[in-house]
Amino acid sequence: MNTLKLNGALFADMIRCGAKNLAEKKEIVNELNVFPVPDGDTGDNMSLTINSAASSEDIDDPVSLAKTSDAVMRAVLLGARGNSGVILSRIFAGLAKGLEGKVEANLQEFDNAMKMAVSEAYSAVAKPVEGTILTVIRDGVNSAHKEMTSETTFEDYFEFLAREMKRSVDRTPELLPSLKEAGVVDSGGVGLLYIFEGMQFAFDGEKVDADFLKTRKNEFEELDISLFTEDSELEFGYCTEFLLRLQNKKTNISEFSVDDFTNYLKSVGDSVVCFKDGSVVKAHVHTKNPGEVLNHCQQLGEFLKLKIENMSLQHNNSVIRNTYSVQNIAPRKKYGIVTVANGKGVVDTFKELGCDVVIPGGQSMNPSTSDFVDAFNQINAETIFVFPNNKNIIMTAEQASEATEKDIRVIKTKTIGEGYSAISMFDTNAEDINTLIDELNGIVSGVVTGQVSQASRDTKMDGLDIKQGDFLGFSDGRILVDKKERKDIIPELAEKLGAENFDICILFYGENVGENEAKEMEKILKEKYNRLEFYLLDGGQPIYDYILILE
């Protein structure tokens, strides 16, 4: 093929081919961790992000490139996970802006849109760092632009793009000392390269079955209907989603008011999302009376697609699978709290502290933008505070805050310790929200969190010669202790963190640690720091054998 014009159908095929290529190679990306613990984030995050678009039927518009790129943008924005996923979503947001209004695009127009993609990606990061995915997309686009001539085809352009992106990836260790020290290249850049390399396959006519790219394994698991019995109460109503084709014989399509229709949905339910694309209305509403909604809609047109799910059944199943830990819906209040945690004991602790929604996640399990938005929709509060508890989740939480009309405030907690301390001291009676935010940030700045995990590979870092299987004690991105035995870690880590200068010590032990060992660690710490107040908690968290919190 010598492609000179790009339409919506081809662009959809490109997205799916790119997603499949990354899905097949994501473990390679996961292994490119600078930090030698088994987190495996980047490949999974980027794959799930791009898959959210590739598995969507909304991108199938053979007529309009603008509509396809806009659908891709919306899907990846909601599906974005982790910092790499958020940046990837901004790349496609910039591309969609550049293709706005275009039924199809020639190469010059597409190249201009790619420049907008670079600009949008850089603007998403408060302090852009070179030697990352940002550098790779910029270098690739700049080089492809320079090599373009009047004879260049789309196939040529993507060849130029991928070739320079590969060179840029290889250069990342020279730009980031941490990569060079660890002996790896930037994982986000590699993930992006795999996507764009895969997109090239579409020019050869390759097609990808969208079912291959479903983003969550449990989305299509059979529900356990025994969890909603003959005596159950419909507490949460029905999640109702539909595509409605307005009919000329039923309504005046040109005068149809999305605002009026949205107001109607709000009168019979909540969590309303609604927009109109031509004569098609796409809507989402949580309601206890879906039949009433359907009857109203059929006065305006006919359904193209319809999905109704019992949210009480979904909730019961999700609690079993630990999808969400949600407190009962309560009357409207001043403040709501959303946090992110993993491990039954840690989750239960946050619920006991008063969190409205605990989104399961953390290292190796980053929630999506959509997960946060869903959580916000479950809370009836004037202002919702979010505690991400992981530096790789902060950008996702911030992006989610921009995707809702609710008043969301993100406190940039980077560890479970910071989140625990801030939430435990949250003043629910505070009158001035800015003062409350300052107080929470002050609490966070005074907390020190140490973590223990096993090394996933050999490496040299922070002056230590680390071997796979060693137990590592680290804090704030620095490895402080390297031991062959786990029992030797906690005493030295506590000393490195200056435990004698604090008043309180909380020790969460993980799923791989027995109670007897944990109590022995507590005993050792109490004997050495006898003025500290101690709390030993069975966190049940994966990856981290211990989380040591000092306040």
Q: How is this structure best described in words?
A:
By secondary structure, the chain is of the alpha+beta class. The protein folds into 4 domains: 5-208, Serine Threonine Protein Phosphatase 5, Tetratricopeptide repeat; 236-313, Alpha-Beta Plaits (2-Layer Sandwich); 328-431, Phosphotransferase system, mannose-type IIA component (Rossmann fold); 448-550, 2-Layer Sandwich (Hypothetical Protein Tm841, Chain: A,domain 3), CATH 3.30.1180.10. It has helices spanning 8-30, 42-54, 65-79, 82-98, 107-123, 133-147, 154-175, 177-182, 187-199, 258-268, 290-297, 311-320, 344-352, 369-377, 394-401, 416-424, 433-445, 489-496, 515-528; strands at 5-7, 104-106, 238-246, 270-277, 280-287, 301-310, 325-326, 333-341, 357-360, 381-387, 407-410, 448-454, 459-461, 464-466, 471-475, 478-483, 504-509, 533-538, 546-550. The strands form 5 sheets. A 6-stranded mixed sheet has the order 16-15-12-19-17-18. A 5-stranded mixed sheet has the order 7-9-8-10-11, with helices on both faces. The longest helix is centred in the first third of the chain and has 23 residues, at 8-30.
Overall structural domain count: 4
Describe the biggest sheet? 6 strands, mixed
CATH topology name of the largest domain, in short, is Serine Threonine Protein Phosphatase 5, Tetratricopeptide repeat
* Unreliably modeled segments: 215-222, 317-329
Form type: globular
